Amino acid sequence: WVSPSLGTSGGPWAAWMPPAVAGLSGTCVAIPCRFGYPEELRPATVHGLWYFGSPYPKNYPPVVARSRTGAVHESFTGRARLVGDPGVRDCSLLLGPLSPELAGKYYFRGDLGGYNQYSFSEHTTLEVLEEPVLEVPPELVAGEEVELRCRVPDNCPQLRPRVGWEGIEELPEVSERELREDAAGAGTVLALLRFRPRREDGGRRLSCRVAFANSTLAFEATVALDVQLELGCEAEGRPPPLLSWFRGVTVLREEPVSTNLRLVLSRVEPDHAGTYSCVAENRHGRHNRSLHLHVAYAPRSPILNGSLWVVAGDPVTVTCGAASHPAPIVTVTRGRRVVAAAVYEPQVTMTLAAARPEDAGEYLCRAENQHGESSLAFNLTVEFPPILLPDSRCTPGGDGARCVCSASAIPEPAVTFDLPSRNVTVTEGHRDYTVTTPGRGTGRVVTVTGILTLRGTLDPRLAVLCSAHNPHGSIRQQLRFHHPGGLVWAKVGPVGAVVAFAIVIALVCYLSQSRRK
């Protein structure tokens, strides 16, 4: 940018900077700035600083940057630098990395020493963008050339933007060019895209993508094309005919005494598909012509049919379909495994001859065609009777034992302990029984763990049975005693321990006598 000549004798206080400047979040902006002051002042040194939001010190605005050492507001620490030399009337400012809170007005204040300080009313308004600006005409008519514009700020010396278009591979008559605009010191790269949209391009997504050399920063703005469709009808007659457009028996538009009638369909939707007829008539006769309109579009959100809550052993049939044109490829997957697929069909059916507990979990139905895709996640729940888990066991310890009974099922199982030798059934509420809070695992599986504490000397004949039941069945199993190292004496009891100790002593004595011989 070019500033007016400064420093003429007796000139007023004045500053020149771009009135507005923009930058993408994470990049930077350089704000060019020049200022002038009356020549008769002839200061020995000149300093300056930038304020944010207000030019007046009495309002205590945040200090953005200074030409000499001094405090600045924490928001600008390490993010703002007065790169110009006020001594030569250069007040240029560099800001970055940018973030939304830095958007606003910036003012420069010159300091020539003593009372010769001046806050300039001229200022720059900074706009921080999260993506490039896409300019799309309000109407796109099939067959008529259209131009899309992508505006990208170019005010960061260290990061020059590279602009490109995505999604244009199948567009007809495409041409691209790039311009640079400079408005009072603020730069913009303008990427232009020209093409002729077709009816089938309605809903197509086009993106303007911005990248920078030697940087991982990238930005993208996307638009879905809204293509208008014009249907034309011409007829001649004497007297001139009445022209009408029909869809079925519904009159969409008519024009008396006309030779040309156009029907404009804005925002073409799948519901617009069908047969359209143009009718021309006067008192001497009537003629008509018809055409069938096909509307291509990406798959709509999938719809499910079938029960997603079954009992183990029951068959499963779940149908997933999505409306689209042309017909989509529909798949049902679980993780990376394809469970069911249909090619160019409106729906796919997932079948299981007999549901198993391990079949429960999340599935994904996905429909796609050349115009886009859509998907829907769903959960299959399989109810089943209780299964006892491997950690169900009794562990002796100290004076007694701790028995654990863990069971998984859907719905939640009830867990009890039976002690046949004592003719006792222990359930929730017994002082020696505790139950953990049920936990839900994959596919809504509920795991319940009951803990029974046995106190006192254990009878070697003691049997502990673990039972679990829910509406679908029950299971019962005798728990085995698990003897970790050092706890074997708890199982054999005090008397057994004394006997075993005596045997060990006798064996040691025997070995000693044998060596003496």
UniProtKB/TrEMBL annotation:
Please provide the record's keywords in A-Z order: Cell adhesion, Lectin, Membrane, Transmembrane, Transmembrane helix
Gene Ontology MF term list = carbohydrate binding; sialic acid binding
Record InterPro entries: Ig-like_dom, Ig-like_dom_sf, Ig-like_fold, Ig_sub, Ig_sub2, SIGLEC
- Where, by residue number, does the polypeptide cross the bilayer? 488-511
**Domain named Ig-like: residues:** 172-294, 299-381
Where does the signal peptide begin and end? none
Q: Which GO terms describe its cellular component?
A: plasma membrane
Where in the cell?
Answer: Membrane
Membrane association type: Single-pass type I membrane protein
Look up the domain of life of the source.
Eukaryota
Q: Known SMART domains for this protein?
A: IG, IGc2
Task: Share an example GO biological-process annotation for this protein.
Answer: cell adhesion
Protein's UniProt keywords contain Membrane = yes
Q: Which Pfam families match?
A: Ig_3
Protein family according to the UniProt entry: Belongs to the immunoglobulin superfamily. SIGLEC (sialic acid binding Ig-like lectin) family.
Q: What is this protein called?
A: SMP protein
Organismal lineage: Eukaryota, Metazoa, Chordata, Craniata, Vertebrata
Gene for this protein? Smp
